[in-house]
Design brief:
51% of the residues lie in helices and 10% in strands. The protein has 34 helices and 19 strands.
């Protein structure tokens, strides 16, 4: 047997060191690692970043847990776990507290700050972005960042934050990106490789619990796909085809389109029946699921009102899904969680009917619910105490609530503007909840039959691979000031060229930009190496280089006598200057000169590369240029004596203001438009700035708070109009005009008016109002940091007025 080479011995030692760590981690979990989990953990252990794309419920978070495990093996190393929503942050925080102890785990979600200096910190992605811009000391010893639900970067409102974090994280930090099964995972992985360095892309389309897909027709649960053959196929069940034909519609004929924007066109043919002959009512549906041992179940309805209505229907039917001991446990948990709520608030929130539903094993889950109530529903479902949850699609994002079966009442949803068909990706996310690992042999998805259902289209929906992930990244005013202040304009342009948006537009630019960044690091190193204690060696090297260029030019051509005497006098003068330069007498002159020559050669390549990038630069950099033009015009940026863009004192205020209306807030603060507002008035103004108006809000007259608010809001609207005109002149699309629709309600709440009275006058669910107050608190907190002292004090007073009652009640300790 031959002796292994040194490189082979090193690889063997790495392998030997890795196996015990994975084996030690394996001993802490209840099941064997799947191949994709083992591959991802191995990559992390070898020092690489990973992108893991796998179906919902496949166990992607195991890879994140291994990153936490690795960090905790090294003295002082830290790991940040980022999520897109607070509910998921709360859940992960509790899981890590259970695993590692409360002293090792922190939670940062904007309005929550628990043990921020811990070694494991769970946070929303915006919090990490803000930490990076502020160069927070909490980033010290950061070894890993987990980006859960990273496909969320496609979100048009908040997705850009994910890209900012990925681009700005220190290069030594390893990234653990967890994604749903998207169709362009490899493309996204290539981008991560370009901007983060070594990154393994690990894609698994295998569900750990197989999914059986059905269509519920009357009392009969039919398979969506033909199961008569020996192997699984994506052929439609012939019985479903017969049902469609029996409805008098030929599958081979042309589809009759229904309403535009409805799934009647894509998944249905002809007219759609309502609760027609093919559908069960909700109590019957739940009873059937119980009879077939398909509970617990999540029923997706895509309507908040529909979810609440479904719970009431089950209560009226008298259906009870829990045993006596389960009811006792439910009541005990709920009463412990709401002990800080006032009785009058509980009455407004419909607590007693809600509790009755919980005790019967039934609940709703949607964004209109009070966050604390949603968290209780999640906890009870995870403890197998709830049997049926009626939910909107928000449940499909991240929160750990797997069920034995998932039911889709319809294949369409309202997207804020129209009813549209759900996409294959959404279908995959929703049905991914079906099947609990280690509990269920298989999961079940159930589509409820409606007259005119097109089985072929539904089968295509269920069998297609998920949606592509497309970037929503665009430079904002706050982003531009932060980056220019930190890196300068040219470097910022290079950073923006590293975005996934630019990568998708022109993959070559990202590769070139990464090379450019590496060259700048090398140039900096060369500058250090050629530094001379006697003087400016770059200047000295420049004289030497100029002499060499003139000598080469003289040797190449056929100059006249006069020319020779002149491209010669210049050489003589340069040589005299060279001998007189302080660095000429340096003992290490030639060593410095060799580094200087390398610097000049690389600088030439660097300049050529910059020119090449400028010719390729796309929409991201063009938008950045327009943003900086607006900021310079308004005085948030200015030119220094070298002609470089730098932030002004006003720009440094804008650096600390985040949100859709960042520039409007900064401009109003600069002009002193809110100095006369009292604390409730300032809270009302913040509500007008963070509230996203609905289409039917436009042009409506609202009752406005008394006092200085009306004049302040009118002047704020005037500023918005000025900015809107300026943005249009620079071909930018700014935010919608602020809406005072909820200003009166927020003013009343900040004055201490009871919740029931506040909610009487607005068409807003309690959960939506609480979410609005959290956004108001966030903006007021920003104002309290950047405003002058008097306004800052009122902002803090406004926060105290808003942060009360149901706003601060939470189930997370």
């Amino acid at each position: 047997m031959t002796n292994p080479s040194p490189s082979e011995r090193y690889a063997l030692s790495r392998q030997q060191r890795r196996q015990p760590r994975i084996a030690e981690f394996q001993a802490t979990i209840r099941f064997d690692l799947d191949p994709f989990q083992r591959a991802a953990c191995g990559a992390l252990d070898e020092g690489r970043s990973v992108l893991v794309a796998a179906p919902t419920g496949a166990g992607k978070t195991i890879v994140a847990e291994f990153a936490v495990f690795l960090a905790m093996q090294e003295s002082g190393d830290k790991v940040f776990y980022t999520t897109p929503i607070k509910a998921l942050s709360n859940q992960k925080y509790q899981e890590f507290v259970d695993a590692w102890g409360a002293d090792q785990v922190g939670l940062l979600t904007g309005d929550t700050n628990v043990n921020s200096s811990a070694r494991i910190v769970v946070m929303t992605t915006e919090v990490l972005r803000n930490m990076l811009y502020a160069d927070s000391p909490l980033l010290d010893r950061l070894a890993y960042v987990v980006m859960d639900e990273v496909h969320y970067l496609a979100d048009r409102f908040r997705g850009a934050v994910w890209e900012e974090v990925i681009i700005h994280l220190p290069e030594a930090v390893r990234l653990v990106s967890l994604s749903a099964t998207v169709s362009n995972a490899e493309e996204f992985g290539d981008w991560l490789q370009a901007v983060r360095g070594d990154t393994d892309v690990i894609v698994s389309e295998e569900r750990p619990v197989p999914l059986e897909q059905h269509v519920l027709v009357r009392q009969k649960l039919l398979d969506l796909f033909d199961s008569s053959g020996q192997a699984a196929t994506h052929r439609v069940n012939p019985e479903l085809k017969q049902l469609a034909r029996a409805s008098g519609r030929s599958l081979g004929g042309r589809s009759q389109r229904g309403q535009r924007g409805s799934d009647r066109g894509r998944y249905h043919r002809g007219q759609q029946g309502g609760q027609g002959s093919g559908r069960m009512d909700r109590p019957e549906l739940v009873a059937m699921l119980q009879q077939k041992h398909l509970l617990p179940a999540i029923v997706f309805i895509f309507s908040r009102a529909g979810c609440d209505q479904a719970v009431r229907q089950l209560l009226r039917s008298g259906l009870r899904l829990t045993e006596a001991h389960e009811r006792d446990e439910i009541r005990k948990i709920v009463e412990a969680r709401v002990r800080t709520f006032r009785d009058e608030d509980l009455a407004v929130l419909g607590y007693w009917e809600w509790l009755e539903g919980l005790q019967r094993g039934v609940a709703a889950h949607h964004a209109g619910m009070l966050p604390a109530f949603k968290e209780i529903v999640e906890e009870l479902f995870q403890q197998k105490l709830l049997k049926v949850v009626f939910a909107t699609e928000t449940l499909a994002l991240g929160v750990n609530m797997p069920a034995r079966s998932v039911v889709l009442e319809k294949l369409e949803k309202f997207n804020g503007e129209a009813r549209v068909p759900i996409t294959p990706g959404e279908y995959t996310q929703l049905t991914g909840r079906a099947g609990r690992r280690g509990i269920d042999v298989e999961g079940h998805s159930v589509i409820q039959w409606v007259e005119g259902l097109d089985p072929e289209a539904v089968a295509a929906l269920a069998s297609r691979r998920s949606y592509p992930m497309n970037s929503s990244f665009k430079p904002t005013y706050n982003m531009a000031v932060n980056l220019i202040d930190q890196f300068g304009r040219e470097r910022t342009r290079q950073i923006l060229e590293l975005s996934f948006a630019q990568f998708q537009a022109d993959r070559a630019v990202v590769d070139l930009a990464r090379t450019l960044r590496k060259q700048e690091e090398s140039l900096s190193g060369y500058e250090q190496a050629m530094r001379c204690h006697l003087g400016d060696f770059a200047e000295y090297a420049g004289i030497r280089r100029k002499i060499a260029e003139l000598e080469r030019s003289q040797a190449k051509g056929n100059p006249t006598h006069a020319q020779r005497e002149r491209m010669q006098r210049e050489i003589t003068g340069l040589r005299k200057a060279l001998r007189a330069h302080p660095c000429h007498g340096c003992a290490e002159r030639e060593a410095h000169a060799r580094w200087a020559e390398r610097w000049w050669r690389l600088r030439k390549e660097h300049d050529q590369l910059q020119s090449q990038i400028r010719t390729r630069t796309g929409q991201v950099a063009k938008r950045f240029d327009r943003v900086t033009e607006v900021l310079e015009r308004l005085g948030y940026l200015e030119r220094d004596r070298h002609g470089a863009l730098v932030s002004t004192p006003d720009g440094r205020i804008l650096k600390r203001i985040y949100g859709e209306r960042d520039l409007l807030v900064a401009e109003c603060l600069r002009r002193g438009l809110w100095t006369e507002l009292d604390a409730p008035g300032l809270a009302a103004m913040a509500a007008a700035l963070v509230y996203e108006p609905r289409r039917d809000d436009r042009g409506v007259e609202y009752r406005l708070p008394r006092g200085g608010f009306r004049e302040a809001f009118a002047r704020t609207s005037d500023v918005w109009s000025e900015l809107d005109d300026l943005e249009r002149d620079h071909r930018l699309n700014g935010p919608e005009q602020p809406s005072p629709a909820l200003a009166q309600a927020m003013h009343a709440w900040a004055r201490g008016v009871p919740l029931g009275v506040v909610l009487e006058d607005i068409e807003l669910a309690a959960g939506d109002f609480v979410r609005l107050t959290k956004q108001v608190i966030d903006l007021l907190d920003q104002i309290s940091i950047v405003a002058d002292s008097a306004l800052a004090v009122r902002a803090r007073d406004a926060i105290d007025g808003v942060r009360r009652g149901v706003v601060i009640d939470t189930v997370v300790s």
